[in-house]
Automatic annotation (TrEMBL):
Family per record: Belongs to the UppP family.
Lineage of source species: Bacteria, Bacillati, Bacillota, Clostridia, Lachnospirales
Regions that span the bilayer: 42-63, 84-101, 113-133, 145-165, 185-207, 219-240, 252-269
Highest taxon of source: Bacteria
Note: Bacitracin is thought to be involved in the inhibition of peptidoglycan synthesis by sequestering undecaprenyl diphosphate, thereby reducing the pool of lipid carrier available.
Keywords: Antibiotic resistance, Cell membrane, Cell shape, Cell wall biogenesis/degradation, Hydrolase, Membrane, Peptidoglycan synthesis, Transmembrane, Transmembrane helix
Protein name, UniProt field: Undecaprenyl-diphosphatase
Matches recorded under PANTHER family: UNDECAPRENYL-DIPHOSPHATASE
GO annotation, cellular component aspect: plasma membrane
Length: 270
Protein backbone atom coordinates (compact mmCIF):
# COMPACT_ATOMS: atom_id res chain seq x y z
CA UNK A 1 0.00 0.00 0.00
CA UNK A 2 2.86 2.41 0.77
CA UNK A 3 4.24 1.87 -2.73
CA UNK A 4 0.87 2.77 -4.27
CA UNK A 5 0.69 5.90 -2.11
CA UNK A 6 4.23 6.88 -3.12
CA UNK A 7 3.21 6.56 -6.78
CA UNK A 8 0.19 8.82 -6.23
CA UNK A 9 2.24 11.39 -4.32
CA UNK A 10 4.95 11.23 -7.01
CA UNK A 11 2.34 12.02 -9.67
CA UNK A 12 0.98 14.93 -7.63
CA UNK A 13 4.48 16.26 -6.99
CA UNK A 14 5.55 15.96 -10.62
CA UNK A 15 2.54 17.90 -11.87
CA UNK A 16 2.21 20.55 -9.18
CA UNK A 17 5.89 21.40 -8.72
CA UNK A 18 6.14 23.06 -12.13
CA UNK A 19 2.62 24.28 -12.68
CA UNK A 20 2.08 27.37 -10.48
CA UNK A 21 -0.64 25.73 -8.37
CA UNK A 22 1.25 24.73 -5.16
CA UNK A 23 2.45 21.21 -4.54
CA UNK A 24 2.00 21.79 -0.78
CA UNK A 25 -1.74 22.40 -1.07
CA UNK A 26 -2.28 19.31 -3.18
CA UNK A 27 -0.11 17.09 -0.98
CA UNK A 28 -1.88 18.34 2.15
CA UNK A 29 -5.24 17.32 0.71
CA UNK A 30 -3.86 13.99 -0.52
CA UNK A 31 -2.43 13.14 2.90
CA UNK A 32 -5.88 13.44 4.44
CA UNK A 33 -6.90 10.34 2.51
CA UNK A 34 -3.56 8.56 2.05
CA UNK A 35 -1.63 7.39 5.09
CA UNK A 36 1.72 5.61 4.93
CA UNK A 37 2.79 3.11 7.58
CA UNK A 38 6.14 4.89 8.00
CA UNK A 39 7.08 7.63 10.49
CA UNK A 40 6.00 11.24 10.10
CA UNK A 41 9.68 12.23 9.89
CA UNK A 42 10.16 9.93 6.91
CA UNK A 43 7.04 11.28 5.19
CA UNK A 44 8.25 14.87 5.61
CA UNK A 45 11.65 13.92 4.22
CA UNK A 46 10.01 11.94 1.39
CA UNK A 47 8.01 14.97 0.23
CA UNK A 48 11.16 17.08 -0.02
CA UNK A 49 13.35 14.46 -1.69
CA UNK A 50 10.86 13.67 -4.47
CA UNK A 51 11.19 17.36 -5.33
CA UNK A 52 14.82 16.58 -6.11
CA UNK A 53 13.63 14.05 -8.68
CA UNK A 54 11.56 16.81 -10.27
CA UNK A 55 14.71 18.94 -10.54
CA UNK A 56 16.56 16.14 -12.31
CA UNK A 57 13.85 16.34 -14.99
CA UNK A 58 14.84 19.99 -15.60
CA UNK A 59 18.52 19.03 -15.89
CA UNK A 60 17.72 16.27 -18.39
CA UNK A 61 15.39 18.40 -20.54
CA UNK A 62 17.63 21.47 -20.57
CA UNK A 63 21.04 19.80 -20.37
CA UNK A 64 22.37 21.37 -23.57
CA UNK A 65 21.13 24.86 -22.68
CA UNK A 66 22.59 24.57 -19.16
CA UNK A 67 25.91 22.97 -20.16
CA UNK A 68 28.63 25.63 -20.59
CA UNK A 69 31.14 23.04 -21.80
CA UNK A 70 29.18 21.74 -24.79
CA UNK A 71 31.35 21.31 -27.86
CA UNK A 72 28.36 22.29 -30.00
CA UNK A 73 28.38 25.82 -28.58
CA UNK A 74 30.38 28.76 -29.85
CA UNK A 75 32.63 30.63 -27.37
CA UNK A 76 29.97 33.35 -27.12
CA UNK A 77 27.24 30.80 -26.41
CA UNK A 78 29.41 29.18 -23.73
CA UNK A 79 29.93 32.54 -22.07
CA UNK A 80 26.18 33.23 -22.22
CA UNK A 81 25.60 29.90 -20.45
CA UNK A 82 28.16 30.73 -17.76
CA UNK A 83 26.54 34.12 -17.31
CA UNK A 84 23.13 32.43 -16.99
CA UNK A 85 24.48 30.33 -14.12
CA UNK A 86 25.92 33.45 -12.52
CA UNK A 87 22.49 35.08 -12.65
CA UNK A 88 20.95 31.96 -11.12
CA UNK A 89 23.55 32.16 -8.34
CA UNK A 90 22.66 35.81 -7.70
CA UNK A 91 18.94 34.92 -7.61
CA UNK A 92 19.69 32.23 -5.00
CA UNK A 93 21.18 34.70 -2.50
CA UNK A 94 17.84 35.63 -0.87
CA UNK A 95 16.89 31.93 -0.60
CA UNK A 96 20.15 31.14 1.19
CA UNK A 97 19.01 33.40 4.01
CA UNK A 98 15.64 31.66 4.04
CA UNK A 99 17.18 28.24 4.67
CA UNK A 100 17.99 29.26 8.24
CA UNK A 101 14.34 29.84 9.11
CA UNK A 102 12.90 26.98 7.07
CA UNK A 103 12.11 24.78 10.10
CA UNK A 104 10.48 27.67 11.96
CA UNK A 105 8.26 28.47 8.97
CA UNK A 106 7.29 24.79 8.63
CA UNK A 107 6.39 24.59 12.30
CA UNK A 108 4.40 27.83 12.53
CA UNK A 109 2.78 28.14 9.11
CA UNK A 110 2.20 24.59 7.84
CA UNK A 111 -1.53 24.52 8.43
CA UNK A 112 -4.59 24.43 6.20
CA UNK A 113 -5.60 28.05 6.91
CA UNK A 114 -2.30 29.52 5.72
CA UNK A 115 -2.12 27.16 2.74
CA UNK A 116 -5.69 27.94 1.67
CA UNK A 117 -5.17 31.70 1.98
CA UNK A 118 -1.96 31.58 -0.05
CA UNK A 119 -3.66 29.54 -2.75
CA UNK A 120 -6.44 32.11 -3.01
CA UNK A 121 -4.24 35.24 -2.70
CA UNK A 122 -1.79 34.17 -5.39
CA UNK A 123 -4.66 32.99 -7.56
CA UNK A 124 -6.09 36.50 -7.45
CA UNK A 125 -2.62 37.95 -8.16
CA UNK A 126 -2.24 35.82 -11.28
CA UNK A 127 -5.57 37.06 -12.65
CA UNK A 128 -4.89 40.72 -11.81
CA UNK A 129 -1.31 40.69 -13.16
CA UNK A 130 -2.32 38.98 -16.40
CA UNK A 131 -5.06 41.56 -16.98
CA UNK A 132 -2.53 44.31 -16.32
CA UNK A 133 0.00 42.69 -18.67
CA UNK A 134 -2.45 42.85 -21.58
CA UNK A 135 -1.77 46.56 -21.80
CA UNK A 136 2.04 46.43 -21.84
CA UNK A 137 4.89 44.65 -23.58
CA UNK A 138 7.48 42.67 -21.59
CA UNK A 139 10.90 44.29 -21.33
CA UNK A 140 12.72 40.94 -21.19
CA UNK A 141 11.89 38.46 -23.96
CA UNK A 142 15.09 36.34 -23.91
CA UNK A 143 17.09 34.74 -21.12
CA UNK A 144 20.25 36.63 -22.09
CA UNK A 145 18.37 39.92 -21.62
CA UNK A 146 17.92 39.23 -17.90
CA UNK A 147 20.07 41.59 -15.84
CA UNK A 148 21.65 40.62 -12.52
CA UNK A 149 19.29 42.99 -10.73
CA UNK A 150 16.28 41.39 -12.41
CA UNK A 151 17.55 37.94 -11.44
CA UNK A 152 18.04 39.10 -7.85
CA UNK A 153 14.52 40.53 -7.83
CA UNK A 154 13.06 37.22 -8.99
CA UNK A 155 15.08 35.49 -6.27
CA UNK A 156 13.51 37.78 -3.66
CA UNK A 157 10.06 36.67 -4.80
CA UNK A 158 11.16 33.04 -4.50
CA UNK A 159 11.67 33.58 -0.75
CA UNK A 160 7.92 34.21 -0.47
CA UNK A 161 7.43 30.57 -1.48
CA UNK A 162 8.66 29.53 1.96
CA UNK A 163 5.11 30.20 3.12
CA UNK A 164 3.23 26.93 2.48
CA UNK A 165 0.63 27.12 -0.28
CA UNK A 166 2.40 29.89 -2.15
CA UNK A 167 4.09 27.66 -4.79
CA UNK A 168 7.75 28.24 -5.57
CA UNK A 169 7.10 28.44 -9.29
CA UNK A 170 4.02 30.58 -8.64
CA UNK A 171 5.93 33.13 -6.55
CA UNK A 172 8.84 33.46 -8.98
CA UNK A 173 6.60 33.64 -12.06
CA UNK A 174 4.38 36.29 -10.43
CA UNK A 175 7.50 38.25 -9.50
CA UNK A 176 9.02 37.93 -12.96
CA UNK A 177 5.80 39.06 -14.66
CA UNK A 178 5.62 42.10 -12.38
CA UNK A 179 9.20 43.01 -13.21
CA UNK A 180 8.41 42.83 -16.93
CA UNK A 181 9.72 39.40 -17.94
CA UNK A 182 7.94 37.48 -20.71
CA UNK A 183 6.09 34.30 -19.68
CA UNK A 184 8.42 31.76 -21.40
CA UNK A 185 11.51 33.43 -19.93
CA UNK A 186 9.88 33.63 -16.49
CA UNK A 187 9.02 29.92 -16.61
CA UNK A 188 12.45 28.79 -17.82
CA UNK A 189 14.35 30.90 -15.30
CA UNK A 190 12.07 29.48 -12.60
CA UNK A 191 13.05 25.97 -13.70
CA UNK A 192 16.76 26.79 -13.58
CA UNK A 193 16.49 28.59 -10.26
CA UNK A 194 14.94 25.46 -8.80
CA UNK A 195 18.10 23.41 -9.36
CA UNK A 196 20.38 24.88 -6.65
CA UNK A 197 17.47 25.88 -4.41
CA UNK A 198 15.83 22.47 -4.23
CA UNK A 199 19.09 20.52 -4.21
CA UNK A 200 20.11 22.49 -1.11
CA UNK A 201 16.72 22.03 0.57
CA UNK A 202 16.65 18.28 -0.18
CA UNK A 203 20.24 17.86 1.01
CA UNK A 204 19.46 19.53 4.35
CA UNK A 205 16.41 17.32 4.87
CA UNK A 206 18.43 14.19 4.13
CA UNK A 207 21.16 15.22 6.55
CA UNK A 208 18.63 16.02 9.31
CA UNK A 209 16.79 12.73 8.79
CA UNK A 210 19.94 10.66 8.48
CA UNK A 211 20.73 7.83 6.09
CA UNK A 212 19.45 4.85 8.05
CA UNK A 213 16.62 3.46 5.95
CA UNK A 214 14.84 0.14 6.02
CA UNK A 215 14.48 -1.76 2.75
CA UNK A 216 10.81 -0.80 2.71
CA UNK A 217 11.61 2.91 3.10
CA UNK A 218 14.17 2.77 0.29
CA UNK A 219 11.60 1.15 -2.01
CA UNK A 220 9.01 3.81 -1.15
CA UNK A 221 11.49 6.66 -1.66
CA UNK A 222 12.85 5.36 -4.98
CA UNK A 223 9.36 4.71 -6.34
CA UNK A 224 8.23 8.23 -5.50
CA UNK A 225 11.37 9.73 -7.04
CA UNK A 226 11.08 7.81 -10.32
CA UNK A 227 7.40 8.69 -10.73
CA UNK A 228 8.04 12.34 -9.83
CA UNK A 229 10.82 12.53 -12.44
CA UNK A 230 8.77 11.01 -15.25
CA UNK A 231 5.67 13.09 -14.56
CA UNK A 232 7.79 16.25 -14.23
CA UNK A 233 9.15 15.74 -17.76
CA UNK A 234 5.62 15.81 -19.16
CA UNK A 235 4.50 18.69 -16.88
CA UNK A 236 7.41 20.91 -17.96
CA UNK A 237 6.80 20.20 -21.65
CA UNK A 238 3.10 20.88 -21.20
CA UNK A 239 3.65 24.21 -19.43
CA UNK A 240 6.14 25.51 -22.00
CA UNK A 241 3.77 24.56 -24.83
CA UNK A 242 0.75 26.01 -23.05
CA UNK A 243 2.18 29.46 -22.30
CA UNK A 244 3.18 30.01 -25.92
CA UNK A 245 -0.52 30.51 -26.69
CA UNK A 246 -2.12 31.21 -23.30
CA UNK A 247 -1.53 33.23 -20.15
CA UNK A 248 -1.59 32.12 -16.48
CA UNK A 249 -5.17 33.23 -15.78
CA UNK A 250 -6.56 29.69 -15.74
CA UNK A 251 -4.06 28.73 -13.03
CA UNK A 252 -5.27 31.71 -11.00
CA UNK A 253 -8.88 30.50 -11.09
CA UNK A 254 -7.76 26.95 -10.31
CA UNK A 255 -5.83 28.14 -7.24
CA UNK A 256 -8.83 30.07 -5.94
CA UNK A 257 -11.12 27.05 -6.34
CA UNK A 258 -8.60 24.71 -4.69
CA UNK A 259 -8.04 27.15 -1.82
CA UNK A 260 -11.78 27.31 -1.14
CA UNK A 261 -12.05 23.50 -1.35
CA UNK A 262 -9.15 22.94 1.07
CA UNK A 263 -10.45 25.54 3.53
CA UNK A 264 -14.00 24.23 3.32
CA UNK A 265 -12.96 20.60 3.74
CA UNK A 266 -10.93 21.18 6.89
CA UNK A 267 -13.50 23.52 8.45
CA UNK A 268 -16.30 21.01 7.90
CA UNK A 269 -14.63 17.65 8.45
CA UNK A 270 -11.93 18.34 11.03
Amino acid sequence: MDIIISIILGIIQGITEWLPISSTGHLLLAEEFLHMSVSNEFVNMFKVVIQLASVIAVIVLYFHKLNPFSSRKTPKQRWNTIELWMKVAVACIPSAVGLFIDDIVDEKLSNYVVISLMLIIYGVLFIVIEKWNKHRKPGVTKLKELTYWTAFGIGCFQVLAMVPGTSRSGATIVGALLIGVARPVAAEFTFFLAIPTMVAASGLKLIKFGFNYTGHEIAVLLTGCVVSFLVSVFAIKFLMGYIKKHDFTVFGYYRIILGVVVLGYFLIFT
